[in-house]
Amino acid sequence: MPSESPDQADLARRLTAALAATRLAAAETLRWFGDPTLAIDHKADRSPVTAADRAAEGILRRELLAAFPADAFLGEETGATAGTSGYEWVVDPIDGTKSFIHGVPLYATLVGCRHGGRGVVGVIAMPALDELAYATVGGGAWHERGSAAAVPARVSPRTTLAESLVCSSDFVDFGRWSGGEAAGTEARRRLDAAAGLVRTWGDGYGYLLVATGRAEIMIDPRLNPWDAAAVEVVVSEAGGRFSDWRGRPRIDSGDGVATNGHVHESLLETLGLPA
Fold this sequence. Notes:
This protein is of the alpha+beta class. It contains seven helices and 15 strands. It has helices spanning 8-32, 51-67, 97-101, 181-194, 203-211, 225-237, 264-271; strands spanning 40-42, 48-50, 72-75, 79-81, 87-95, 108-115, 118-126, 131-136, 140-145, 151-152, 165-167, 197-199, 217-220, 241-243, 256-259. β11 (165-167), α4 and β12 form a beta-alpha-beta unit.
């Protein structure tokens, strides 16, 4: 039977396993990064996938389920495996495959763990930047660069949209938002007008920037659970807030936004979407 509630010792064991598996998977992505012979396939939704994606996810699945064989697992490339422990690993081996294919280092390896529908562990790795952020619920968020010791990850103190750096994976996707093209396009127009600076430093990197105080907002019009599970925990434990576009604390709505918390309500008001 699944445990009722995870304790910190249990979360620490899962974080240790998550970090070890993430580092192995991240190293695997670097073996392929910048390889001009890398073959590219396309999935049913026309999104690209490579041998690097599959190999890295294979490592994550193997290592995490070896450490916790009763846990469930959901991966972008290999789908879902049921478990009995009440825990579920949710992973994206290369978040930002398009960047990866083009040799741009702003791709991430994301590993999240959930318990009872709640995120409890999150790891965001930037393999080509040698940067890492991780968190457990109630245990705070931490940031590593290179061989330097980990330091607390904290969101920025800025309180207005006019001061904020807004990141997104692709602003064109606002017009493809699941709630409707017109509403998404108009939400983007309002956000562009209100924000201090707008950049497409997206995918997991944008969420890392929020969690480490370098950006105030990361917004995705289209978001899958494997894109969100890890970043939700890291951003929240860094003092920020993650929600869908209507302010609900969910990772399965098809869209998502992370902020430093101070500008979250202002952002939701600016998006102007019906509840």
